[in-house]
Write a structure and sequence with these properties.
With 397 residues, the protein is an alpha/beta fold. It has 18 helices and twelve strands. The protein has two domains: 227 residues, 3-Layer(aba) Sandwich (Rossmann fold), CATH 3.40.50; 159 residues, N-(1-d-carboxylethyl)-l-norvaline Dehydrogenase, domain 2 (Orthogonal Bundle), CATH 1.10.1040. The protein starts with a strand and ends in a 6-residue tail after the last helix. The chain binds nicotinamide-adenine-dinucleotide (NAD) and D-Mannitol-1-phosphate. Nicotinamide-adenine-dinucleotide (NAD) binds next to helix 1.
Length: 397
């Protein structure tokens, strides 16, 4: 087993397709084992432990899959294994903690990631151990700063907040690799193709991107990623164009009777709405327009990958956490410029009845109260959203 020098919180599908894969293919991979903790349920830890932490990554290109055995996990633990958590975070060899706990996992409740990190950091300080980098890898804008604020708020033990200021490096990241939840059919395919009866394979697409901004005072694996001073331009492009379109396809696609991203983007009406949303969001992107056009074309190919079965119901979860990052910056900017933006209003109108079934007026008012109370008195916007919600998503024939 490789020595544990990294810890992960939120052992799920995406971590295994992304950060664990980057670590496994780094030139110094043999020096960097990961101790991974689940966020809640123990199932994945039990399954991986039964197979010495190794698992299969299936990369599905439109012309066929490849199978890789990933060996970067050195230990796996359930969320409940608090002693192991405190032990790993206290060790001087441990230099980085990556985190994937969904957008909803950054709250300051006792079960959230920040509370667990604070407990670990207090143990690290008590052990006299030094610097550490925390690397949030969830689809949240300014994820490093969001994590820093939550951790500092919870660090009430005397002296801990200033120790954190001196020793903890909060890294901001943009992460990208479409990774649906693993199914029984995926497990059967891996067994058939590799002869390994893998209890925990994971399926992903060929495309992968990781952009990070951090100091890494205690070191890090030699990840083949992009290191920059400012992640914001990458983050905006990805959250607005990829994730924003995903949300539109999820909510409007479900209303139109589709099940997967591939089916939804194949619906010409939905494709048109995605382009309309992209035209609107692209106006505020800092990239060169030709670069944005190429990014959009690549996204269309990724969404249409027939080998990736990405369920719209999975993307539709946690709307109140996702809509503000993906859609509202564009909606607010357009309203401030005096325009009524159909692209972003349509996403709001598609999400509202998903969250609050019933009359369109009630759904839209509730949606605005929840994610954009500042726009609640914008009658023109409200009326437009109500009209779209009431009549704009007729079912497929
Ligand atoms: N799957 C993708 O395509 C993808 C791509 C880019 C980024 N991401 C990011 O990764 C996140 C996880 O995706 P996944 O595919 O691994 O999902 P997953 O369901 O396989 O794993 C989620 C992990 O987060 C934990 N978790 C969930 N809610 C939590 C909470 N409130 N507190 C603590 N832990 C919690 C779960 O226990 C689990 O370990 C996404 O929400 C997103 O922010 C995913
Ligand atoms: O993972 P979530 O739940 O934040 O969002 C669902 C998808 O939009 C997302 O997972 C994308 O597939 C991913 O962000 C691609 O990199």
């Amino acid at each position: 087993m490789r020595p544990v020098r990294a810890v992960h919180l939120g052992l799920g599908a995406f971590f295994r397709a992304h950060q664990a894969w980057y670590t496994d293919r780094a030139p110094d991979a043999d020096d960097w084992g990961i101790a991974a903790f689940t966020g809640r349920s123990a199932t994945l830890a039990e399954r991986l432990r039964a197979q010495d932490c190794a698992y299969t990554l299936v990369t599905r290109a439109p012309d066929g899959p490849t199978y890789e055995r990933i060996g970067s996990l050195a230990a796996v633990h359930a969320a409940s294994e608090q002693e192991a958590w405190l032990h790993h975070l206290s060790r001087p060899e441990v230099a980085v903690v990556t985190i994937t706990v969904t957008e909803a996992g950054y709250g300051t409740d006792p079960a959230g990631a920040p509370a667990r990190l604070v407990a670990g950091l207090a143990a690290r300080r008590a052990a006299g151990t030094g610097a550490l980098s925390l690397v949030p890898c969830d689809n949240l804008p300014h994820n490093g700063e969001v994590l820093r604020a939550a951790v500092r708020e919870l660090a009430t033990e005397p002296g801990l907040a200033s120790w954190i200021d001196d020793h903890v490096d909060f890294v901001t990241t943009m992460v990208d690799r479409i990774t649906p939840a693993t199914t029984d059919a995926d497990r059967a395919e891996v067994r058939e193709a590799t002869g390994f009866d893998d209890l925990a394979p994971v399926v992903t697409e060929p495309y992968s991107e990781w952009v990070l901004s951090g100091a890494f005072p205690a070191g890090r694996p030699a990840w083949d990623a992009t290191f920059v001073d400012d992640v914001a331009p990458y983050e905006q492009r990805k959250l607005w164009l990829l994730n924003g379109a995903h949300s539109l396809l999820a909510y409007a696609g479900l209303l139109r009777g589709h099940e997967t991203v591939e089916q939804a983007i194949g619906d010409p009406v939905l494709h048109g709405w995605v382009e309309e949303w992209w035209d609107e969001a692209s106006r505020r992107l800092p990239q060169d327009p030709a670069e944005t056009r190429a990014y959009r074309a690549a996204l269309l190919e990724r969404f249409a990958n027939p080998a990736i079965r990405h369920l719209l119901t999975q993307i539709a979860m946690d709307g109140p956490q996702k809509i503000p990052a993906r859609i509202l910056p564009s909606l607010r900017a357009e309203r401030a410029a005096g325009r009524l933006p159909t692209g972003s209003t349509r996403v709001l109108a598609a999400w509202a009845p998903h969250h609050t079934p019933g009359p369109a007026e009630v759904a839209i008012d509730r949606a605005l109260d929840l994610v954009a109370p500042d726009l609640r008195d914008d009658a023109e916007l409200r009326d437009a959203a109500v009209a779209l919600a009431a009549g704009g998503f007729e079912a497929r024939r």
